[in-house]
Amino acid sequence: MRLSRLFFTSLRDDPADAEMASHRLLVRAGYVRQLGAGIYSLLPLGFRVSQRIEQVIRDEMNAIGGQEMEMPVVHPADLWRETGRYAKIGPEMVRFKDRSGRDMVLAMTHEEVVADLLRDLVKSYRQLPAIVYHFQTKFRDEPRSRGGLIRVREFVMKDSYSLDADAAGLDRAYDLHYAAYEKIFERLGLATVAVGADVGIMGGSLAHEFMALNDAGEDTLVICEACGYAANQQIAAVGAPDPAPEELRLIEEVATPETPTIASLAALLGVGTDRTAKATFFVTGDGRLVTAIVRGDFEVNETKLGNAVKAIGGLRPAQTEEIKAAGMEPGYASPIGAHDTTVVMDELAARSPNLVAGANRHGYHLLNVNSGRDFTPDLVTDIANARAGDGCPNCGSPVVLRQGIEVGNIFKLGTDFTKALGSTYLAEDGSRNLVVMGSYGIGLGRAMACIVEAHHDDKGIAWPASVAPYPAQLVSLGASRDPAVGEAAEGLYQRLTDAGVELLYDDRDESPGVKLTDAELLGMPRILTISPRSLTAGGVEVTDRASGERSVRPVSDVEAELRG
RNA sequence: CGGGGCGUGGCGCAGUUAGGUAGCGCGCAUCGUUCGGGACGAUGAGGUCGGAGGUUCAAAUCCUCUCGCCCCGACCA
């Protein structure tokens, strides 16, 4: 491809609204353009990268027996009503009516369609197992997109679905995907860590997220470098040590003016935050007030809490009036004397003796509060966030926290969807059983952005060879003055093109500075410079974009290697 | 949805406080000189200042409403 003909432009200045390196560079180098919030066009260069990522994924999906297909972006709402998700999913699903007034939705994912196809196509155990997948557009009307391609509303995802006769089959399909994902991300140049993830209240039994480590990542990961334990903080078990046993002392009310926060309370009383109990309040989607108690040195984990109380429609922070209505005083609250609320006690807090807790009276706290003696929680379980340095739940070594970007997930769905849609098969023994499903996703645009995050420097992108839009960028310098340069560059480009090897050829009549700067910005793995100087030195100057290593080599050598 | 910020040629910005009829840099076009690290000179094209309404002799600037985008939080099948 001649750069003079390429539908693109590079920008000298960083776009004002791009903060992450991947966003900045992909826009500046002419790979993508924004159309609206969370909606992007892939320009020819960006599309080529996306296609190359797609091909890597396709290879590995086919290698585990995946069958590529394509399912629609527009679905009849009735199908989503059958599984109950039409009502369950909020405004992130786009709904509209077609010309006949039928309710339609834009696909956020394709479990429904797969399960619908199953009841049509699969009738016998002989047809199982199977893995189907496609690369298809999803639209999720996220409340907030961010980070360029990191979190968008419209994106192409590889989603695959495993179809099995039983749970053992699902286990095999899951393991196949796990291994395939490791290969895919390695080939894409992405260092990922697979973490255990929340399966939510949707019924799945096991899920992993493949996380690209990145400081700007939205997820916090709890990682044990000693034993390899890794989990999303949303579900990571807290491995804090047992508190030292103490005699339970008598409860005692003390005046603690102006101490609505744990920090101010601990400072006033001269105790550690680990000697306090923190009460926080949430309301479930179906209107229940939940009082969550953790020790003052921990934070409440809303995912764990939501799962613990089986919150329908999630949790939102409670309002002051709602807390007071249950007999508690915000800032000085405890479950003692509370009513009409579900009290969930963190298990570590429950094991910690003689804590300071609110007196439910403005400006007062209680000393020596003990769970079980002074109040009875409805539920005692782990609802706290694991912290850096806490013991690994697996081996006890101190864990570290890292930020990550979810680039892929694998999920054991089970039979929820096939049950809802009646997708059954006849087994060998004649019994009618539900097909067991798993679903597995990789977002292409997000993967592209993560690759740039991991492969760039202050000059631009440095694509891994596996996904680069072209293997090399050929740059001619001074062609307009030295016919030999033009001939050498044109000749090399022409011969390689004829041989089916595509290069990006900067044939523009620009100054050396512009062309070299652009070549580094665009990030092809190798930059081939042909100039009077290089010809004198023996041919083509080959620069490895990532390492910066340069060598001058005969044109024929370079040509032979690229024909490879 | 809460908080904050921003909308002025393709990109980055100034001008808004103290209303007077739009400017700078880059990019773009043409010509000339340059040519291995975002060259230089000359000439030129391109914007009714996100939109609507209002105040005024006069609005990018003041008022009202509205749309959009970014960041933090909430949210995230």
Structural class: alpha+beta
Q: Strand count, sense and closure of the main sheet?
A: 9 strands, mixed
User: What is the 3D form?
Assistant: globular
Q: Assign the CATH architecture of the largest domain.
A: 2-Layer Sandwich
The residue ranges in which pLDDT falls below 50 over 5 or more consecutive positions are: none
Tell me about this structure:
With 564 residues, the protein is of the alpha+beta class. The chain has three domains: 54-73 and 107-236 and 402-452, Bira Bifunctional Protein, Domain 2 (BirA Bifunctional Protein, domain 2); 252-381, YbaK/aminoacyl-tRNA synthetase-associated domain (YbaK protein, Alpha-Beta Complex); 472-563, Rossmann fold, CATH 3.40.50. Helices cover 28% and strands 29% of the residues. The chain has 16 helices and 31 strands. Strands 3, 7, 8, 9, 10, 11, 12, 21 and 24 form a nine-stranded mixed beta sheet that branches. A five-stranded mixed beta sheet has the order 16-14-15-17-20. A hairpin with a 5-residue loop joins strand 30 (540-544) and strand 31. The longest helix has 21 residues, at 167-187. The two termini are 19 Å apart. The model has no long low-confidence stretch (mean pLDDT 94). The structure holds one RNA strand of 77 nucleotides.
